[in-house]
Amino acid sequence: MKNQNDLSSPIQYVKGVGPQRARLLARLGIKTVRDALFYLPYRYEDRSAIKKIALLCPEEIQTVQGKIIKTDVVTPTNKRPRLKIFEAVITDGSGALKAKWFNQVYLKNVFKTGQQVVLYGTVKVNYWGSGFEIVNPEYEILDDNDDEESNPSALSPQPSASCIHTGRIVPIYRLTEGLSQKNLRGIMYAVAGNSTPAVSDFIPQEIIKEYGLPDIQESLRNIHFPYSSSSLNDLNSGTSPYHRRLSFDEIFTMQLGLAAIKKRETTEKGISFSPGGKLINRLLAKLPFKLTAAQERVFNDIINDMRSPAPMNRLIQGDVGCGKTIVALMSMLTAVECGYQAALMAPTEILAEQHYLNMHRLVEDLGLKIHLLTGSKKNKEAGMIASGDADIVIGTHALIQEGVSFKKLGLIVIDEQHRFGVMQRATLRKKGTNPDTLIMTATPIPRTLALTLYGDLDYSVIDELPPNRNPVITRLFYEKNKSRIYALMEEEIKKGRQAYVVYPLIEESEKTDLKSAITGAEALQKMFPNFKIGLIHGRMKPAEREDVMREFKEGGIHILVSTTVIEVGVDVPNAAVMVIIHAERFGLSQLHQLRGRVGRGSGQSYCILLSYGGSDDARKRLDVMVETTDGFRIAEEDLSIRGPGEFFGTRQSGMPDLKVANLLRDVKILEIARKEAFALIERDAALSGYPELRKAMGDFWGERLEMFKTA
């Protein structure tokens, strides 16, 4: 292989590749030798147990070894004259076995009588029932030294070292059209054998010794071509010592970046607020409820941050209905009282409007001005924001567009941070001079995982719901059970309670969604002529939606038919029934959010999931909803169903992709890596004593690290 010690060398020059295969490998993201080394198998098969032919069992996948005693090309005497079958008969002394390959006549030039071969495949009883055969097995010729894909000296000595495709634990890689498993495995064998010595170990030696981590070069060799003594279960679950070593490297490098960001932020000069608390006291006097102990504790965390001269960067996490929004409003009023503006950025117009509708009366009653800034209202509001006329601004991405400036921005609140890119968060911060940042998420995430996704942030949890709330009873129904749903709704409404009926956004089409809600409202009005049916959807003007919601909240509407606009922020304690139509079309977190709209009063509430079928994953989601109301349990199930990448939206959040590590599986590694990374940055913030580690961190994070530094 050309330049075998140069990991940046093009993959084309590896033995067995060439220009044509290099183009195929590029589809898999393999362009260099380094790319190939870190393109890991996605599963493994144990082909190491050689079974005697006499002991074979039909319909089992087996590995056999023997000498070829006969080869032939056969044309079946039936209606398929073009079909050619290459046959080879082998014996191991205990019996004979026939191997067949369909339309692979070229194998007559590969297999020769007298050769020793290993075969792997499903054993069948032959047509006459008198013996065994294997159709289209994978094979290895043990004494063919010219096999371009075999190189016995490439790796450290292992059992059956001359075998790559059989007679061992065999790696299985994801493929692309035109590239066979055997082709790719042969290439990987050459790369893993020749190029691993060029991989440098950038993890500090004291950490490697402290935790007994295996050598990085040994780890790469054994991930691609494991020892036969390796545990197949550990390999396939990604928990072998060698997988864990690569997972540690990846997570440690990620945590180093987060530690560097946090270290930098703590040395920046921010705003030191000195609130008197008058606005907060006036607000609390107007609220019809008392704050929970958890809300008070978290608000104290925020106030302490705001008083500090360093910029606040705090994540507030809390389950549906825990009262995050009121804590955010209290924080914004604190900034306003000290002469600054506050901004809340939500990911969609609907969510921004919902926050505005919930807050504006409270804010205006305090004599302050609150403005809503969305794509459709940008020009009208921008002047008031720049002049300082707006004390609090609620908006979407429109907040960060050019032409929108603040007179004196002191606090940023970001709702559902995982739905924003890092650059958006950074751009909003640049609208002020190191303003304080408060981030809210209603997605329950286990603490350790939250520290990974938001590792540069301080972390508070509102872990208490308001008192006197009964868990919502959740039931799954199908179309044939609809009459039972209507009966429950009627029964609850006659008790003086109210109901939501929510329709999904179907095929991402607002028109279809709107039609569904309208059709549903009309049908319900015919079914319940004595009840008042309300309708709310995303195409209505905010004022119209506010009128409908006010009427519903005051009890004038019995059944509110809605699209997902009521997913967040709506608090109607008298609403006791939530019916979700086509529940199989919703994600787990969205179902949990919708369920959080009921159960806010002291009486018993119900969430009815109406399903019309769906995938296995959809059924799993609905089963989880029925089983538990615990947001953390739901989040863990969501993680296991969707996988960490999709759950966290790592690309959207700006975090680098994890190729080996799994945040759910590798929690213990994460805890260790985080502790060591933060300790190292505390000792040597510039990593001046670790040049290779500094380079590895730069390679891993790329431009993202610079973006995070301004975020």
Give a quick rundown of the structure.
This protein is α/β, with parallel strands linked by helices and 711 residues long.
CATH topology of the domain at 278-462: Rossmann fold
The fraction of residues assigned to DSSP E strands is: 15-25%
Q: On the 0-100 scale, what is the average pLDDT?
A: 84
Q: N-to-C terminal Cα separation, in Å? A: 45 Å
Rg calc: 32 Å
Largest sheet: 7 strands, parallel
Biggest β-sheet: strands ordered side by side in the sheet: 11-12-10-13-14-9-15
Question: What CATH architecture label of the domain at 278-462 applies?
Answer: 3-Layer(aba) Sandwich
Query: Which CATH top level class of the domain at 278-462 fits?
Result: Alpha Beta
Helix content, binned percent: 25-40%
Q: Given the C-alpha coordinates, what overall shape results?
A: globular
- Count helical runs: 25
CATH superfamily of the domain at 278-462: P-loop containing nucleotide triphosphate hydrolases
What structural category characterises the helix and strand content?
Answer: alpha/beta
Low-pLDDT segments, ≥5 res: 144-161, 707-711
| Total number of strands | 21
Sum up the structure in keywords.
single chain, 711 residues, alpha/beta, OB fold (Dihydrolipoamide Acetyltransferase, E2P), Rossmann fold, 6-stranded parallel beta sheet, globular
